[in-house]
Write a structure and sequence with these properties.
The longest helix has about 40 residues. The protein has one domain. The protein is an all-alpha fold. The protein is built from 6 helices and no strands. It is elongated, with a radius of gyration of 23 Å.
């Protein structure tokens, strides 16, 4: 029995390839968000992570680390924010990059993917800090949201510049090949 285009024409049926592509694009983003959810619990607050990290640092660098442990622990946690959310932004960029495959302009695709990845990073970092503000041993700080977003911007900028350099090198190679052929 043939189905009416009026019923199924409104909602196009996705092929399994398209579903796999979307899953491949967005599953890593979901995995990163789940890591943030686990890390955003009261069990992984500074009061619970300080002692084990200090013991590990003392085992590697010696007992002199304990003299400056408060500052070292803050720097480790802030570096973790910066790098963790920077990596999250890159994973989001990858998802949007795959999603926008059909765009004609590569630069437009890059800018759009990077802009949306940074926006998603800001929103997830904000949600994480809001959640932490409700936990007894954690506090949500807008400065952490800014640090997280800055990590995304910084790592995104590195990737953007690398992609631009690669594109320019490709254009130079094509020009040299065309010149040699002429």
């Amino acid at each position: 029995m043939a189905s009416s285009p009026m019923v199924f024409g409104v909602y196009p049926v996705q092929s399994s390839t398209s579903r796999r592509l979307k899953l491949r694009a967005w599953l890593p983003v979901l995995a990163c968000a789940l890591v943030f959810a686990v890390e955003s619990t009261s069990y992984l607050g500074a009061d619970h992570t300080s002692a084990p990290l200090e013991r590990a640092a003392e085992a590697i660098f010696g007992y002199g680390v304990g003299l400056h442990w408060g500052m070292i622990h803050i720097l480790l946690r802030k570096a973790g924010h910066f790098m963790g959310y920077g990596a999250f932004c890159l994973v989001c960029f990858r998802g949007f990059w795959i999603e926008f495959q059909s765009e004609a302009s590569k630069l437009s695709r890059q800018l759009r993917a990077h802009g949306l990845a940074i926006a998603v990073t800001f929103l997830v970092a904000s949600a994480d800090e809001i959640h932490q503000s409700f936990l007894p041993n954690r506090c949500g700080q807008f400065s952490d949201v800014l640090l997280d977003t800055l990590g995304g911007v910084a790592l995104g900028l590195v990737v953007f510049m690398a992609m631009q350099a690669r594109s320019a090198a490709s254009c130079r190679r094509e020009a040299a090949c065309a010149e040699a052929a002429a």
